[in-house]
Write a structure and sequence with these properties.
Number of domains: 3
Radius of gyration: 41 Å
Helix content: 10-25%
Oligomer: single chain
Structural class: alpha+beta
Distance between the termini: 62 Å
Strand order of the largest sheet: 14-15-16-20-1-19
Strand content: 35-45%
Largest sheet: 6 strands, mixed
Number of strands: 20
Order of helices and strands: HEEEEEHHHEEEEEEEEEEEEEEE
């Protein structure tokens, strides 16, 4: 009797053992099929639609000063550095940089005599004016003294203008960018280049865009200026001028961008990138374009909910080189798959890893 009972129990035990092992095997298979992925919470942000272009930046104020007379070249001392002016020195408006010495030229101007004549003529005119009011002189005598005074004044002013030719002064506050070398006290001729100055706190660049952009480019639009050498130093420019004419050769039109450069991060002649901001949206869902799959003529992403990946078809809006606006298909705090999505299918089992 006991033997019969054991024969009945053994098959039952074996059956339970097989069921238990099969269950464990199914769990192992499920665990193995769970694909590793990384996720991020979907958030709102800003996005801009851009038009990219490149060009060279130039200083808005440039002056190349030349000698107007012949004479001895004398480079002046910079009062800030206490040495002769050099390349890269900052100069103030009106500061004397070079002097051309020509004693014969100065003597011919006869400045002291002209100044004395002006003073005498002025006194005579004032005297005649006072006498005329009292009836002591005629109107003709008053006008003659006035003419003498005006002539003396013009003569003195012209002499001053000529005297300015011997002094080369900065017409604005800027930086010396070119300073041809001449030995001090050697004679140079008229027309020799002496110094080139630039003020590049404000700069401009000219770029050409294809004809298709003509309707969307407007004066006043902002543009982000990036220097290829220092890509982290980004400045803001503004479109100020747009040519209405197209080049017959390139089918492009020209526009000018003004750039504030107060810290002198940009230097004249630099090649820079300009991202013109055509449109901007704030507080919208924005994701990186690299998280999107294109399947069956649709843009799709995957989100994770309870260890399962769900496929979402997107409706998109603004986009640029890196980002894209999601109008429909995602909501804030969805867990968007950012790594491992390439091999997923709808309702794939996944395991979220960091």
């Amino acid at each position: 009797m006991q033997m019969k009972t054991m024969f009945k129990i053994i098959p039952l035990f074996l059956g339970l053992l097989i069921i238990f092992q099969c269950k464990n095997r199914d769990e192992d298979v499920n665990t193995e099929l769970a694909l590793p992925v990384s996720v991020m919470n979907v958030k709102t942000g800003s996005i801009e639609k851009l038009i990219n272009a490149t060009g060279t930046v130039n200083a808005t104020l440039v002056a190349e000063l030349k000698s107007e007379i012949a004479g001895k070249y004398i480079l002046q001392t910079n009062s800030l550095t206490r040495h002769s002016f050099r390349l890269g020195d900052k100069v103030k408006e009106g500061q004397l940089i070079v002097k051309i010495e020509d004693k014969e030229f100065e003597n011919n101007l006869n400045m002291e005599s002209k100044k004395l004549n002006l003073d005498v003529s002025k006194q005579e005119y004032q005297k005649q004016e006072s006498l005329y009011k009292k009836g002591g002189v005629t109107l003709r005598e008053l006008r003659n003294s006035e003419i003498s005074y005006i002539n003396a004044q013009n003569s003195y002013e012209n002499a001053n203008i000529s005297m300015e030719k011997i002094e080369v002064r900065s017409p604005f506050t800027g930086i010396i960018v070119d300073l041809p070398y001449y030995t001090n006290n050697t004679k140079i001729t008229a027309g020799q280049p002496l110094v080139k100055l630039m003020d590049f706190k404000k700069m401009y660049m000219e770029i050409n865009l294809p004809e298709k952009n003509m309707q969307i480019i407007k004066p006043g639009q902002l543009t982000r200026i990036t220097n290829y050498v220092s890509p982290d130093d980004t400045l803001i420019g503004r479109i100020t001028e747009i040519s209405p004419a197209l080049s017959t050769e390139t089918r492009t039109f020209k526009l000018k961008i003004m750039i504030d450069n107060p810290e002198l991060k940009l230097h004249p002649g630099m090649f820079v990138k300009s991202d013109i901001i055509i449109e901007k949206k704030d507080s919208v869902i924005v994701i990186l374009k690299k998280y999107i799959l294109s399947r069956n003529n649709a843009r799709k992403v995957f989100v994770v909910d309870k260890s399962t990946a769900h496929e979402r078809v997107l409706e998109t809006g603004l986009e640029n080189n890196m980002n894209i606006e999601v109008v429909k298909g995602l909501v804030v705090n969805d867990k968007l798959v950012t790594k491992g999505f390439e091999t997923l299918r709808d309702r794939s089992k996944v395991k979220v890893i960091k």
